[in-house]
Amino acid sequence: MGVDDGEIIARSVEERAVFAEIYDRHERVVFRYAARRVGVAHADDIVSETFLVAYDRRESFDGSDARPWLLGIATRLIGKLSREEARAWRGMVAADLARVDTDAFDAADDRLDADRLARRLGRMLARLPAGDRDALLLYTFADLDYEGVASSLGVPVGTVRSRLNRARRKLRAALASLGDVEKNHGRDFVPAPSAD
After folding, report:
1. Which of 69, 131, 170, 184 has the least CB density, counted as fewest CB within 10 Å?
2. CATH architecture of 82-187
3. pLDDT of 79-129, one tens digit each?
4. Secondary structure class of 75 (helix, strand, coil)
5. Are 136 and 150 a contacting pair, CB within 8 Å?
């Protein structure tokens, strides 16, 4: 195996240009994570700022894998964009739901239903406490394990487990309440008046 990130970052303290290898290794992961969190329009800014912060703080890095460290920096930067994040969630969820294959006759209704569902789910995700949301998104979008999420957020692994459990419980409850919406094709069901 080649040189680990820690060795490269340590070398970059004296040879600044060496830090470009860290960028080359991890830029795509940070970009994908940022794009899923705040949309493509803001992802480039998050990536640039993440690597600037990392470069400025490279002397304090202590580890062999820079990915959790970089994603932790990106997560904190994304936290500053909370209003844009809420809007991006609604758009991202709608885009994912729109990929579901539907019959041609029901396509229009399904898109309307998906959009309605996406808005409701997006509001639920936006209402999660920031720590719970960040843990969930790092675990889901950045494909980090519990230890990686803990390292990114600077919290113990037990805290990550608690945050993920709490976020999953809240999302399951929200999805369960949306189940009735899906059963009725997104329309409010009002029974016909009785003929008494």
Report:
1. 184
2. Orthogonal Bundle (1.10)
3. 877 655 566 556 655 555 555 444 444 554 555 566 666 677 777 778 889
4. helix
5. no
